[in-house]
Specification:
169 residues, alpha+beta, 4-stranded antiparallel sheet, 4 strands, elongated, disordered C terminus
Amino acid sequence: MELDAVDRALLRELQNDARQTNRDLAAKTGVSPSTSLERVRLLRERGLITGYHAALDLEAVGRPVQALISVRIRPPARPVIEGFREWAHQLPEVIAMFVTSGAYDFLLHIAVPDVNGVYAFVIDRLTERREVADVQTTMAYEHVRPRIIEPAGAGAAYGEPIRHTRRHR
């Protein structure tokens, strides 16, 4: 899916602040408010924008301790994998989950109040499941992630400034 400089700018600005007004968004991206509104609508329809979310401070909500837990499932059959995925997805401690290849089948990113919460999650939740053959826990000291994810592909280079030409009528 080809994105032009305006689409990229709109996506960048919305990731930075999805609550800004359309007028502010248009001003920051150098387009008219009607163009901004239409382009954002098209980006949603094309599935590039899937929603707007509030980012929470895990420490402020009482879950400052994070861990990454690799889980091996046995037997590695589709119904078993899908059953575990559905179960794990519902757990309140899980803030992200990846279905992976390699030695482990899942990577669970959890956030809990303290180290005892990590231990309880592994021992009381995971190892009670019959299909869980092995777990490996890695404590996360810090979670650093970019605020803005640039679309890949042809077109404007990452972080390249937007150049607009205004047509006079």
